[in-house]
């Protein structure tokens, strides 16, 4: 990397590029001297790289803004082009709805104002344009209140930029900035409090659950008012431009051109709950709230930090996570060394966990956050590991109220995190969970973490890791030996089924084909023993042959999958096949899930068969005691929608190729026609057309391009047919899924008059069937646990909400059918509808 690039990239950091100095003023002066000379040689390269640094390292924006301010003193033309580029990028971001670019570029323009580069009045015009768009959007008559998420986002962008330039605006244009703040207050008075109940981490106790409490926009407004009343002074935003103020005042201001905001879609003509909910969902997907605060630590852990400083540090952390997601060690390094003068480990942990658990989905996979937390624990060994452990303990205490999807993510993260630190954890603190009922959320959490750890290591290793709480061995899964019915143990009676299994085993070893094996089964086993015995022998024997490893199992399914397919052609028999797989791998949840996933991948079982198996009586009673069936259901739904996504991508690519082929074919025909219209001499005689050799090549090209176009069109038609079939199957799958949820919930949920909300389920059983646990070793008395049936209802409704929220984009196209066949009718329980509507952002009233 060039020296000037390194200086730009590492400005404000401790490193060899700037010697021993860590002073921002020294860094800016050094960088300015080099960049000033470099502009004369390669100005076209400096400008885009400088903008890229400012956009992708936004916690350094004040440094880059000051540097540009100094450059403005000597090279106004260069800086004018930078300002034009910033504004052009800002308009492109507004037009495309690129939330991160809009937010960062507005912050950058505010910082440029501090460096006397941008005219304050023109920045106020940008603020007022955004604010006007927001106010119009939430207006019942002129706008579309369903798209309040877009309006809120614009207001958040204005408020979030003020910590970087509020003091300068208040000093230079006090009346104008006051007008903007009054406009924001007026906007807050006409917008609706966005409770977003389907996106809360906890079932109760969180601020967003009640309209009387403040949502994120109102909270940020309070923080901004507190900042303004404090004279716009804060600790978290460096102000290096003050060191150069005497020089910067001589710089020329550059004007910002007017901007245009993207208008939201028109409101639906039919103001039904579903149409409003669909638009609200679309708006939230387009303009998501980037953080929802967990507030898991006591207030005294961050009480010395101003409210606005907390917000700024959250912005820093989220920006670093976003822009350095491909460099985890660099990401952890920047997160551990933010330009703030106070400690923020607790705030960093809360922010990271809020991202891991964020609903409807985090910006990145859980694995990314796992690696960043691991690197932070290594970078800050004296502080961060203890903070992470404290966060886990705090979340564990609230686990019964945590959303089911967030709970599953926490289990996956925690088990993976422990695997990176030799599975060390003070399990004795949680040994009291053995005194709780099998369905208690804390007990299930510990059980699921231990089971996931076994997947990441081996049984004996995990048993050794809990030796300080050896009683927890009860929660470990059974040792992962398959339950093979036809093993030849001493003293065990050898039946005819044993002989059939041995014969089938011999045929596999002889590498007989699936067709020959199926013929033998149909002639020898099926007529004599019937379907159930035949299925048991075949499944047990073939799975036993493939039980040594994943590779062995996949090989068996590839080679003899046709046998399963021929034996079980319909959903009823496929459900029986899945039951046999579950019985064989009853001691190994991972192999059960993998086997069923591969069977669906090879189309040996359908997604509907998996749904029916999950909701079969043998599994329904375990819904609140284990995540295994939910994992299998989630895998089936994922595979279904991944298939649809792949088909859509294929269709998009083929459509582009068809357009290219059409153009190539048209060009070839035009070239041939032009050649045919020309006169040429052949043996002294005038002949229509060019020389025969060229004509032959042109005709050949026309034929080839025409064939390529036809082939692509046929491929496109085939893919579209597959997509239509997949969408039709998806509709049937969703109908079955929600009908199954509705049926099992109807059997167990209390009468609607007794349970109008999930909280009613808890309060109903809190006094009657509750049990209290007195723990030893000085631990406090644990609160009551609710009963079996109530916990089953809470867990099942929680998973219903989670699946609906996760696949909302695929559910909406089938909403009319689902409403007609599942969501309407007097026998539908209100809690069932409440779970679905909250997940889809449909108003309950």
TrEMBL record:
Q: Name one GO biological process term.
A: mRNA export from nucleus
Example GO molecular function: mRNA binding
- On whether Coiled coil is a keyword of this UniProt record, the answer is yes
MIF4G domain boundaries = 8-228
Query: Could you tell me where this protein is found in the cell?
Result: Cytoplasm; Nucleus
Coiled coil (UniProt feature): 637-685
Key word Phosphoprotein present: no
Question: Which superkingdom is the protein from?
Answer: Eukaryota
Residues of the region (Disordered) are 754-785
Q: Which residues cross the membrane?
A: none
InterPro entries from the entry?
Answer: ARM-type_fold (IPR016024), CBP80 (IPR027159), MIF4G-like_typ-1 (IPR015172), MIF4G-like_typ-2 (IPR015174), MIF4G-like_typ-3 (IPR003890)
Concerning Pfam families, the annotation shows:
MIF4G, MIF4G_like, MIF4G_like_2
Q: What is its main location?
A: cytoplasm
| Gene Ontology, cellular component aspect | cytoplasm; nuclear cap binding complex; nucleus
UniProt entry keywords in alphabetical sequence: Coiled coil, Cytoplasm, mRNA capping, mRNA processing, mRNA splicing, Nucleus, RNA-mediated gene silencing
Q: Where is the composition biased (Basic and acidic residues)?
A: 754-765
So what family is this one in?
Answer: Belongs to the NCBP1 family.
Q: What is its quaternary makeup?
A: Component of the nuclear cap-binding complex (CBC), a heterodimer composed of ABH1/CBP80 and CBP20 that interacts with m7GpppG-capped RNA.
Q: What is this protein called?
A: Nuclear cap-binding protein subunit 1
């Amino acid at each position: 990397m060039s020296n000037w690039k390194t200086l730009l990239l590492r400005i404000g950091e401790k490193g060899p590029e700037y010697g021993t100095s860590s002073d921002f003023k020294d860094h800016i002066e050094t960088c300015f001297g080099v960049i000033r000379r470099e502009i004369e040689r390669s100005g076209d390269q400096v400008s885009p790289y400088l903008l890229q640094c400012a956009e992708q390292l936004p916690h350094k924006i004040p440094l880059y803004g000051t540097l540009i301010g100094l450059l403005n003193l000597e090279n106004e033309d260069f800086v004018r082009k930078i300002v034009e580029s910033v504004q052009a990028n800002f308009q492109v971001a507004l037009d495309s709805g690129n939330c991160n670019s809009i937010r960062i570029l507005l912050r950058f323009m505010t910082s440029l104002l501090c460096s006397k580069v941008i005219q304050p009045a023109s920045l106020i015009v940008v603020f007022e344009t955004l604010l006007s768009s927001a106010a119009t959007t939430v207006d019942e008559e002129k706008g579309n209140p369903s798209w309040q998420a877009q309006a809120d986002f614009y207001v958040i962008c204005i408020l979030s930029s003020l910590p970087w330039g509020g003091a300068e605006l208040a000093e230079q244009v006090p009346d104008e900035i006051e007008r903007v703040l009054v406009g924001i207050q007026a906007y807050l008075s006409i917008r609706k409090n966005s409770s977003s109940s389907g996106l809360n981490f906890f079932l109760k106790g969180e601020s967003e659950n009640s309209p009387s409490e403040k949502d994120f926009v109102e909270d940020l407004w309070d923080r901004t008012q507190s900042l303004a009343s404090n004279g716009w002074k804060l600790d978290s935003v460096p102000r290096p431009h003050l060191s150069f103020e005497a020089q910067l005042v001589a710089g020329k201001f550059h004007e910002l051109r007017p901007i245009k905001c993207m208008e939201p879609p028109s409101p639906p003509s039919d103001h039904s709950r579903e149409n409003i909910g669909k638009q609200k969902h679309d708006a939230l997907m387009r303009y998501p709230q980037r953080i929802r605060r967990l507030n898991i630590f006591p207030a005294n852990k961050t009480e010395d930090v101003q409210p606005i400083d907390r917000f700024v540090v959250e912005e820093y952390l989220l920006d670093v996570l976003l822009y350095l997601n491909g460099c985890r060690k660099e990401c952890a390094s920047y997160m551990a060394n933010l330009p703030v003068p106070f400690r923020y480990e607790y705030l960093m942990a809360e922010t990271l966990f809020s991202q891991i658990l964020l609903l409807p989905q985090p910006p990145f996979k859980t694995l990314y956050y796992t690696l960043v937390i691991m690197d932070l624990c290594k970078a800050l060994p004296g502080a961060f590991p203890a903070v992470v452990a404290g966060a886990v303990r705090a979340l564990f205490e609230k686990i019964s109220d945590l959303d089911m999807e967030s709970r599953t993510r926490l289990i996956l993260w925690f088990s993976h995190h422990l695997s990176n630190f030799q599975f060390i954890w003070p399990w004795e603190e949680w040994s009291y969970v053995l005194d709780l009922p099998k369905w208690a959320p804390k007990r299930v959490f510990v059980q699921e973490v231990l089971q996931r750890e076994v997947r990441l290591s081996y049984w004996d290793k995990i048993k050794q890791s809990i030796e300080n709480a050896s009683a927890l061995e009860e929660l470990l899964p059974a040792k992962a030996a398959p339950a093979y019915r036809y093993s030849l143990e001493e003293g065990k009676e050898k039946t005819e089924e044993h002989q059939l299994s041995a014969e089938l085993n011999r045929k596999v070893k002889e590498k007989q084909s699936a067709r020959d094996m199926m013929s033998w089964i149909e002639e020898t086993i099926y007529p004599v023993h019937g379907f159930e015995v035949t299925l048991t022998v075949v499944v047990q024997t073939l799975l036993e042959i493939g039980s040594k490893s994943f590779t062995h199992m996949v090989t068996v399914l590839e080679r003899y999958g046709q046998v399963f397919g021929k034996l079980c052609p319909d959903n009823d028999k496929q459900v029986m096949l899945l039951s046999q797989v579950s019985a064989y791998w009853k001691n190994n949840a991972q192999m059960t899930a993998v086997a069923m996933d591969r069977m669906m991948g090879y189309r040996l079982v359908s997604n509907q068969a998996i749904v029916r198996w999950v909701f079969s009586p043998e599994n329904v009673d375990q819904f609140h005691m284990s995540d295994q069936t939910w994992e299998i259901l989630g895998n089936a739904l994922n595979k279904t929608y991944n298939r649809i996504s792949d088909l859509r991508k294929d269709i998009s690519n083929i459509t582009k190729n068809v357009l290219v082929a059409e153009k190539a074919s048209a060009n070839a025909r035009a070239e041939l026609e032009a050649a045919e219209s020309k006169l040429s001499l052949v043996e002294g005689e005038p002949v229509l057309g060019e020389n025969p050799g060229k004509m032959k090549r042109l005709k050949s090209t026309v034929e080839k391009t025409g064939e390529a176009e036809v082939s692509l069109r046929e491929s496109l038609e085939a893919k579209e047919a597959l997509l239509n079939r997949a969408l039709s199957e998806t509709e049937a799958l969703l109908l079955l899924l929600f009908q199954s949820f509705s049926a099992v919930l109807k059997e167990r949920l209390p009468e609607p008059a007794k349970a109008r909300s999930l909280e009613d389920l808890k309060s109903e059983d809190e006094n009657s069937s509750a049990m209290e646990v007195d723990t030893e070793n000085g631990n406090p008395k644990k609160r009551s646990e609710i009963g079996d049936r109530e916990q089953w209802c809470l867990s099942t409704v929680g998973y219903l909400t989670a699946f609906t929220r996760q696949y909302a984009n695929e559910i909406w196209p089938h909403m009319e059918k689902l409403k007609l066949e599942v969501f309407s009718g007097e026998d539908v329980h209100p809690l069932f509808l409440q779970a679905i509507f909250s997940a889809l952002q449909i108003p309950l009233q």
